[in-house]
Give the backbone structure.
Amino acid sequence: MLDVISDGRMEVGIARGAYQIEFDRLADGLAAADGGKHLRELVPAVRALWQGDYAHDGEIWRFPTSTSVPKPVQRPTPPMWIAARDPASHDFAVSQGCNVMVIPLMKGDEEVVALKDKFDTAVAHHPEVARPDLMVRRPGLPVTGPPGDRPFPRQRPAFAGIRGTPGVRGSI
């Protein structure tokens, strides 16, 4: 629906969940470690639904012939983003032609570098797939005062060329 309203500017973001409490509350106690396989089966099913009538009989998800309406404007489907931290999630996202979003949680720039390395490894493993985008969602700091007084320079080497980082333009 949003794709139709936005005239084809929608992008879809999907994450498997990060913490056990999320699974306890929303998935009847599913082990967080099993969240990835649920997501990996869901992504191709959603794309198939966007293409037309589709029935699914997978290991986890099962539904009879169904459809999704309205159909997305973008062809073949709207761009998809998958949140990834571990190598398997990066590999799956890239193999499916999905963009990757990473969220460095507690460490400094070294975590950004490590996540980008996982992404680059996945890209190298799938030369048959057009290189997707990588976006870093970095929790921000409230900053006041003129730009020269900011605690970090506008562009730090660890963030160079990564989409979605404030102050950085371009793609990797």
In short: The beta strands are 12-14, 54-57, 62-66, 80-83, 99-102, 134-136.
